[in-house]
Amino acid sequence: MKGLSLGLLLVSFALGANASENAPVPTVIPDSVLSLPSDSLRAIAGAWRIDIYRDWLRLQLSKGGVPVRDYLCSVGNDSIGKATPTGRFRIIGKIKDPPMYWKNGTRIPPGDWRNSYGPRWMSLGEEPRGTYRRYGIHGTNVEDSVGKFISSGCIRLHNDSVIELFDLVPEGTPVFIH
């Protein structure tokens, strides 16, 4: 996994990235932390927290207030009315090999080329109500779609990233979408 480097941050500013002037900026995580094995992260004291920076297409995972992982992600496409919502959420459910359901009720099984959820799904519930909004963090059936404003509002990760995240964080983990 590659971290968000200072060079990438500077290039993003120079190229006029989609980040608005007042958008929060992800923390630069040292490579020495990014390279820690997942098992070592569990030993860090404190609670897990996920921050998603829509303008930067980044999902950052923190433990005990220390950022420990930085993942490239896809978010919703504002220009077609499919924006990823902002606010405070919690992971309220986790599913391995999730099926996908079309609006007409058709079930698309895991592994089917039409199922865009990939190998993991984590449902997001709103804070403080705890209601389900049909948004989640999931993998993909098209790996090169990650890192774009392309989803219908969900947060899409590379499959190896979503599997690692799924295995690390428990239900109830707070998720802040900026």
Topology:
Blueprint: H1 6-14, H2 31-34, H3 38-42, E1 48-53, E2 58-63, E3 66-76, E4 87-96, E5 100-101, E6 107-108, E7 120-126, E8 132-138, E9 149-151, E10 155-157, H4 159-168, E11 174-177
Parallel strand pairs: 1-11, 3-9, 8-10
Antiparallel strand pairs: 1-2, 2-3, 3-10, 4-7, 4-11, 5-6, 7-8
Assigned CATH architecture = Beta Barrel
Structural shape: globular
Q: What is the CATH class name? A: Mainly Beta
CATH homologous superfamily title: L,D-transpeptidase catalytic domain-like
Order of helical and strand elements = HHHEEEEEEEEEEHE
Unreliably modeled segments: 1-19
Overall number of domains:
1
Give the overall pLDDT as a whole number.
85
Main beta sheet: strand number and arrangement? 8 strands, mixed, barrel
Count the beta strands: 11
Output the strand order for the largest sheet.
1-2-3-10-8-7-4-11
Distance between the termini: 22 Å
Task: State the helicity in percent bands.
Answer: 10-25%
